[in-house]
Amino acid sequence: MDNKSVRGRRVVVIGTGGTIAGRATSALDNIGYSAAEVGVAELVQDLAPDGVTLLTEQVAQLDSKDMDFGVWQSLAERCSEWLALPDIDGIVITHGTDTLEETAYFLQSVLAPEKPVVLTCAMRPATALAPDGPQNVRDAVCLASGNADSAARGVLIVCAGRVHGAFDVQKVHTYRLDAFDSGDAGPIGHIEEGMLRRVREWPAGDRASADRVLERVRALPSDRWPRVEIVTSHAGASGRVIDALCASTAAGDALDGLVIAATGNGSIHRSVEAAALRAQEAGVAVVRATKCVEGRILPVVNATLRDAGKLTPVKARISLMLELMTRSAAPTPR
Ligand code: SIN
Questions:
Q1: Of 157, 182, 160, nearest in space to 169 by CA
Q2: Are 299 and 269 in contact (CB under 8 A)?
Q3: How far is the CA of 61 from the centre of ligand 1 (A)?
């Protein structure tokens, strides 16, 4: 019997809102609900596996479309404090599905945790006839406690019985309960009756660099985080959006970075590219990320704008923001 079996396992469940905490006026209504109404303590009631103690903390209560840097900063802070306690085995975060992949990517970048931090969610509100939240929470707790696999680590996502890694996961469906996918990387594994059937490696993390980023995330007020915008390239696109963004810098609202949501292998409409190059010349950090849901940008020789590899535009934006935050210790000029 190991020490954990003797003392039992302890998991912190952090609530942030979402459909999982949503309430509708009718149990038959799966879409006409208000997100973020039920408290996290209520969501986890009676869901702890034997020998697992759940502690709860409500860090936010919002529809995740409105996620903001202040909540991310609090989440990073609270997770890092809980993870440092030797008697905490892991963390579960209940979250809306709409920006879950962004929060997961952010947390993996700033924590690279050696313990499991498991984000989970639901596509139906808590009041639904057949809600999906309770099973997702139960699976997430099994993973975060180490019961499902004692080697679990990193920021993970559990939804509809599948376990995804923070770098690869994407919401791919508007309504289906199994709304997430990891593209051609595939899921990390499957939770089956509380046990993990793992099919690939845990997320890799560089703790030393994550610690450096976390230090900046803690130190910089969330309203001073770098301003990085996403501009989409498509048929008939023009560079005017980028020119307007750069003009806002001149008007005192500095644009620090730009992600071009590019077509195919990172190609960009010539008008957008010309404006992006002007922006880069003016000191804006510019990155290309592909809109394709699978694959990665394969580098080509003589590329004038760097690429984000396999990162989606929203994740490339977070990556660029964190890079700009750590590039200089001085606050971003506004
Ligand atoms: C949200 O993202 O908070 C609402 C949608 C959902 O959780 O499915």
A1: 182
A2: no
A3: 11
Kindly list the protein residues whose Cβ atom lies closer than 6 A to any atom of ligand 1: 17-19, 35, 63-65, 96-98, 121, 123
Q: Residues, the chain, total?
A: 334
Tell me, what's the pLDDT at 265? 98
CATH superfamily of 3-198: L-asparaginase, N-terminal domain (3.40.50.1170)
pTM check: above 0.85: yes
CATH placement of domain 226-327: 3.40.50.40
Arithmetic mean of pLDDT over the chain: 95
The minimum-distance atom of ligand 1 relative to the CA of 17 is 3
Contacts of 34 (CB under 8 A, 6+ apart): 22, 23, 24
**What confidence tier does 333 reach under pLDDT thresholds 50, 70, 90?**
very low
Predicted pLDDT at 6: 57
Where do we find the tokens 């679990």?
A: 152
